[in-house]
Amino acid sequence: MKKTKIISITNQKGGVGKTTTAVNLAAGLNRKGMKTLLIDLDSQGNASASLGLIIEHDIRTIKDLLLNPENPRDFIAKASAAEIIPSNNSLKDIEDFLIKDRNFDTLKHSIAPLAKDYEYIIIDCPPSINVFTKNALRASNEIIIPIDVGYFSLLGIKQLLEEIEHFKKELNPRLDILGILACRYDRRTSLSAQIYETLRQSFPDKLFKTYIRLNIDIVRAQIAQKSIFSYNNRGTAAQDYNSLTEEIING
Ligand SMILES: Nc1ncnc2c1ncn2[C@@H]1O[C@H](COP(=O)(O)OP(=O)(O)O)[C@@H](O)[C@H]1O
Ligand SMILES: [Mg+2]
Fold first, then answer.
1. What is the pTM of this model?
2. The domain containing residue 68 runs over which residues?
Protein backbone atom coordinates (compact mmCIF):
# COMPACT_ATOMS: atom_id res chain seq x y z
CA MET A 1 0.00 0.00 0.00
CA LYS A 2 1.11 3.58 -0.71
CA LYS A 3 2.34 5.73 2.16
CA THR A 4 -0.57 7.26 4.08
CA LYS A 5 -1.14 10.91 3.29
CA ILE A 6 -1.65 12.90 6.45
CA ILE A 7 -3.13 16.27 5.52
CA SER A 8 -3.72 19.19 7.90
CA ILE A 9 -6.38 21.72 6.96
CA THR A 10 -5.01 24.91 8.41
CA ASN A 11 -5.30 28.70 8.47
CA GLN A 12 -5.13 30.75 11.65
CA LYS A 13 -8.18 32.72 10.55
CA GLY A 14 -11.58 31.40 11.61
CA GLY A 15 -14.55 31.10 9.31
CA VAL A 16 -12.60 30.46 6.10
CA GLY A 17 -13.84 26.92 5.39
CA LYS A 18 -11.37 24.66 7.23
CA THR A 19 -13.92 22.47 8.96
CA THR A 20 -16.24 22.35 5.94
CA THR A 21 -13.30 21.24 3.80
CA ALA A 22 -11.99 18.70 6.32
CA VAL A 23 -15.40 17.05 6.70
CA ASN A 24 -16.36 16.98 3.03
CA LEU A 25 -12.93 16.00 1.79
CA ALA A 26 -12.89 13.09 4.24
CA ALA A 27 -16.41 12.12 3.10
CA GLY A 28 -15.43 12.58 -0.56
CA LEU A 29 -12.35 10.39 -0.24
CA ASN A 30 -14.31 7.67 1.57
CA ARG A 31 -16.98 7.55 -1.12
CA LYS A 32 -14.25 7.13 -3.74
CA GLY A 33 -13.12 4.05 -1.86
CA MET A 34 -10.13 5.68 -0.17
CA LYS A 35 -10.04 4.65 3.45
CA THR A 36 -9.95 7.97 5.31
CA LEU A 37 -9.89 9.03 8.95
CA LEU A 38 -10.88 12.51 10.10
CA ILE A 39 -9.27 13.97 13.21
CA ASP A 40 -11.03 16.88 14.91
CA LEU A 41 -8.27 18.88 16.58
CA ASP A 42 -10.35 21.94 17.40
CA SER A 43 -11.85 22.38 20.87
CA GLN A 44 -14.92 23.88 19.18
CA GLY A 45 -15.70 20.39 17.93
CA ASN A 46 -17.40 21.68 14.77
CA ALA A 47 -16.27 18.78 12.59
CA SER A 48 -17.59 16.30 15.15
CA ALA A 49 -20.91 18.12 15.44
CA SER A 50 -21.36 18.41 11.68
CA LEU A 51 -21.03 14.62 11.39
CA GLY A 52 -23.67 14.17 14.05
CA LEU A 53 -21.40 13.51 17.01
CA ILE A 54 -22.44 15.79 19.82
CA ILE A 55 -19.77 14.91 22.25
CA GLU A 56 -20.63 14.49 25.90
CA HIS A 57 -17.83 14.97 28.37
CA ASP A 58 -17.61 11.29 29.24
CA ILE A 59 -17.09 10.18 25.64
CA ARG A 60 -13.60 9.52 24.37
CA THR A 61 -12.11 12.31 22.32
CA ILE A 62 -8.81 13.42 20.84
CA LYS A 63 -7.93 14.81 24.28
CA ASP A 64 -8.03 11.31 25.76
CA LEU A 65 -5.95 9.97 22.90
CA LEU A 66 -3.28 12.63 23.43
CA LEU A 67 -3.17 11.68 27.11
CA ASN A 68 -3.19 7.91 26.46
CA PRO A 69 -1.57 7.34 23.10
CA GLU A 70 -1.31 3.54 23.37
CA ASN A 71 -4.44 2.29 21.67
CA PRO A 72 -5.52 4.88 19.11
CA ARG A 73 -8.16 2.58 17.59
CA ASP A 74 -10.19 2.84 20.82
CA PHE A 75 -10.83 6.54 20.13
CA ILE A 76 -12.27 6.26 16.64
CA ALA A 77 -16.00 6.91 16.25
CA LYS A 78 -17.90 5.77 13.17
CA ALA A 79 -20.06 8.45 11.60
CA SER A 80 -21.80 7.59 8.36
CA ALA A 81 -19.64 9.95 6.27
CA ALA A 82 -16.27 9.08 7.82
CA GLU A 83 -14.50 7.54 10.75
CA ILE A 84 -13.52 10.32 13.12
CA ILE A 85 -11.57 10.94 16.29
CA PRO A 86 -13.87 13.59 17.76
CA SER A 87 -13.20 16.64 19.89
CA ASN A 88 -14.97 18.91 22.32
CA ASN A 89 -14.04 21.80 24.56
CA SER A 90 -12.32 19.52 27.07
CA LEU A 91 -9.37 19.63 24.64
CA LYS A 92 -8.47 23.01 26.16
CA ASP A 93 -7.75 21.28 29.49
CA ILE A 94 -4.52 19.78 28.16
CA GLU A 95 -3.20 22.83 26.31
CA ASP A 96 -1.01 23.97 29.23
CA PHE A 97 0.28 20.46 29.79
CA LEU A 98 1.33 20.17 26.14
CA ILE A 99 2.90 23.64 26.09
CA LYS A 100 4.81 23.12 29.33
CA ASP A 101 6.84 20.23 28.01
CA ARG A 102 6.88 21.45 24.39
CA ASN A 103 5.03 18.30 23.43
CA PHE A 104 4.76 18.86 19.69
CA ASP A 105 5.11 15.20 18.74
CA THR A 106 2.32 13.75 20.85
CA LEU A 107 -0.20 13.57 18.00
CA LYS A 108 2.36 12.21 15.57
CA HIS A 109 3.28 9.35 17.91
CA SER A 110 -0.27 8.62 18.92
CA ILE A 111 -1.57 8.23 15.35
CA ALA A 112 1.49 6.46 13.92
CA PRO A 113 -0.02 2.98 14.48
CA LEU A 114 -3.13 4.02 12.48
CA ALA A 115 -1.22 4.82 9.30
CA LYS A 116 -1.37 1.28 8.01
CA ASP A 117 -5.18 1.25 8.29
CA TYR A 118 -5.85 4.40 6.22
CA GLU A 119 -4.91 5.89 2.88
CA TYR A 120 -5.68 9.42 4.09
CA ILE A 121 -5.81 11.04 7.51
CA ILE A 122 -7.34 14.54 7.45
CA ILE A 123 -6.76 16.84 10.43
CA ASP A 124 -9.12 19.78 11.08
CA CYS A 125 -7.01 22.44 12.84
CA PRO A 126 -8.11 25.20 15.22
CA PRO A 127 -8.10 28.84 14.04
CA SER A 128 -4.71 29.74 15.54
CA ILE A 129 -1.16 28.46 15.51
CA ASN A 130 -1.34 27.00 18.99
CA VAL A 131 0.17 23.85 20.43
CA PHE A 132 -2.50 21.70 18.72
CA THR A 133 -1.78 23.15 15.28
CA LYS A 134 1.92 22.60 15.92
CA ASN A 135 1.17 18.97 16.74
CA ALA A 136 -0.81 18.74 13.49
CA LEU A 137 2.01 20.22 11.42
CA ARG A 138 4.49 17.80 12.99
CA ALA A 139 2.23 14.84 12.30
CA SER A 140 1.36 15.76 8.69
CA ASN A 141 3.15 15.39 5.42
CA GLU A 142 0.93 17.88 3.61
CA ILE A 143 -1.25 20.89 4.32
CA ILE A 144 -4.22 22.50 2.61
CA ILE A 145 -4.83 26.20 3.23
CA PRO A 146 -8.46 27.26 2.71
CA ILE A 147 -8.86 30.94 1.97
CA ASP A 148 -12.09 32.93 2.04
CA VAL A 149 -12.05 34.68 -1.34
CA GLY A 150 -14.94 36.88 -0.28
CA TYR A 151 -12.71 38.51 2.30
CA PHE A 152 -9.24 38.73 1.05
CA SER A 153 -5.88 40.45 1.28
CA LEU A 154 -2.94 39.29 -0.77
CA LEU A 155 -0.67 40.69 1.93
CA GLY A 156 -2.48 38.54 4.50
CA ILE A 157 -1.92 35.43 2.39
CA LYS A 158 1.75 36.24 1.80
CA GLN A 159 2.17 36.67 5.56
CA LEU A 160 0.37 33.38 6.17
CA LEU A 161 2.63 31.55 3.72
CA GLU A 162 5.73 33.15 5.28
CA GLU A 163 4.58 31.98 8.66
CA ILE A 164 4.01 28.48 7.34
CA GLU A 165 7.52 28.47 5.84
CA HIS A 166 8.79 29.50 9.26
CA PHE A 167 6.94 26.71 11.04
CA LYS A 168 8.03 24.27 8.36
CA LYS A 169 11.66 25.09 9.08
CA GLU A 170 11.17 25.00 12.82
CA LEU A 171 8.82 22.03 13.10
CA ASN A 172 8.72 19.86 9.98
CA PRO A 173 10.97 20.54 6.97
CA ARG A 174 9.29 17.72 5.02
CA LEU A 175 5.87 19.33 5.14
CA ASP A 176 4.48 20.16 1.66
CA ILE A 177 1.83 22.70 0.79
CA LEU A 178 -0.59 20.50 -1.12
CA GLY A 179 -2.58 23.55 -2.10
CA ILE A 180 -4.35 26.79 -1.40
CA LEU A 181 -8.10 26.32 -1.69
CA ALA A 182 -10.36 29.22 -2.65
CA CYS A 183 -13.51 28.89 -0.52
CA ARG A 184 -16.77 30.84 -0.33
CA TYR A 185 -16.40 31.85 -4.00
CA ASP A 186 -19.25 34.19 -4.91
CA ARG A 187 -20.32 34.09 -8.55
CA ARG A 188 -22.82 36.91 -8.18
CA THR A 189 -20.07 39.54 -8.21
CA SER A 190 -16.81 39.71 -10.14
CA LEU A 191 -14.80 40.11 -6.94
CA SER A 192 -14.19 36.40 -6.26
CA ALA A 193 -13.12 35.85 -9.89
CA GLN A 194 -10.66 38.73 -9.64
CA ILE A 195 -9.28 37.43 -6.38
CA TYR A 196 -9.00 33.90 -7.74
CA GLU A 197 -7.08 35.24 -10.73
CA THR A 198 -4.74 37.21 -8.46
CA LEU A 199 -4.12 34.07 -6.41
CA ARG A 200 -3.47 32.06 -9.57
CA GLN A 201 -0.87 34.55 -10.76
CA SER A 202 0.77 34.83 -7.35
CA PHE A 203 0.82 31.10 -6.51
CA PRO A 204 0.58 29.28 -9.86
CA ASP A 205 1.79 25.93 -8.54
CA LYS A 206 -0.08 26.06 -5.26
CA LEU A 207 -3.63 27.08 -6.06
CA PHE A 208 -6.16 24.26 -6.51
CA LYS A 209 -8.02 24.46 -9.86
CA THR A 210 -11.17 23.66 -7.94
CA TYR A 211 -12.75 26.49 -6.01
CA ILE A 212 -15.62 26.07 -3.58
CA ARG A 213 -18.61 28.21 -4.44
CA LEU A 214 -20.70 29.96 -1.82
CA ASN A 215 -23.73 27.76 -1.38
CA ILE A 216 -26.37 27.62 1.32
CA ASP A 217 -26.44 23.79 1.11
CA ILE A 218 -23.15 23.81 2.99
CA VAL A 219 -24.76 25.46 6.01
CA ARG A 220 -27.87 23.30 5.67
CA ALA A 221 -25.84 20.09 5.48
CA GLN A 222 -24.03 21.05 8.68
CA ILE A 223 -27.29 21.72 10.43
CA ALA A 224 -28.62 18.37 9.16
CA GLN A 225 -25.38 16.76 10.43
CA LYS A 226 -24.63 15.23 7.04
CA SER A 227 -21.83 15.46 4.53
CA ILE A 228 -22.62 17.56 1.48
CA PHE A 229 -22.83 14.34 -0.56
CA SER A 230 -25.56 12.78 1.51
CA TYR A 231 -27.36 16.10 1.94
CA ASN A 232 -27.61 17.02 -1.76
CA ASN A 233 -25.41 15.05 -4.07
CA ARG A 234 -26.59 16.93 -7.17
CA GLY A 235 -25.96 20.45 -5.91
CA THR A 236 -23.03 22.71 -6.76
CA ALA A 237 -21.44 22.30 -3.32
CA ALA A 238 -21.27 18.51 -3.76
CA GLN A 239 -19.86 19.03 -7.28
CA ASP A 240 -17.17 21.35 -5.91
CA TYR A 241 -16.08 19.03 -3.10
CA ASN A 242 -16.17 16.08 -5.49
CA SER A 243 -13.93 17.96 -7.88
CA LEU A 244 -11.52 18.83 -5.03
CA THR A 245 -11.46 15.18 -3.99
CA GLU A 246 -10.61 14.09 -7.54
CA GLU A 247 -7.95 16.76 -7.87
CA ILE A 248 -6.30 15.46 -4.70
CA ILE A 249 -6.55 11.79 -5.63
CA ASN A 250 -5.22 12.39 -9.12
CA GLY A 251 -2.47 14.64 -7.79
N1 LIG B 1 -18.80 27.43 0.37
C2 LIG B 1 -19.56 27.83 1.40
N3 LIG B 1 -20.80 28.33 1.17
C4 LIG B 1 -21.57 28.74 2.19
N5 LIG B 1 -21.21 28.69 3.48
C6 LIG B 1 -20.00 28.20 3.78
C7 LIG B 1 -19.11 27.74 2.77
N8 LIG B 1 -17.98 27.28 3.36
C9 LIG B 1 -18.15 27.47 4.69
N10 LIG B 1 -19.36 28.01 4.95
C11 LIG B 1 -19.91 28.40 6.25
O12 LIG B 1 -19.05 29.36 6.82
C13 LIG B 1 -18.88 29.13 8.21
C14 LIG B 1 -17.39 28.89 8.52
O15 LIG B 1 -16.96 27.70 7.85
P16 LIG B 1 -16.01 26.66 8.58
O17 LIG B 1 -15.76 25.57 7.63
O18 LIG B 1 -16.59 26.30 9.91
O19 LIG B 1 -14.71 27.55 8.78
P20 LIG B 1 -13.45 27.37 9.78
O21 LIG B 1 -13.37 25.94 10.17
O22 LIG B 1 -12.29 27.86 8.98
O23 LIG B 1 -13.74 28.28 10.95
C24 LIG B 1 -19.72 27.91 8.54
O25 LIG B 1 -20.95 28.37 9.06
C26 LIG B 1 -19.95 27.23 7.22
O27 LIG B 1 -21.19 26.58 7.18
MG1 LIG C 1 -13.30 25.08 12.08
1. 0.97
2. 5-250
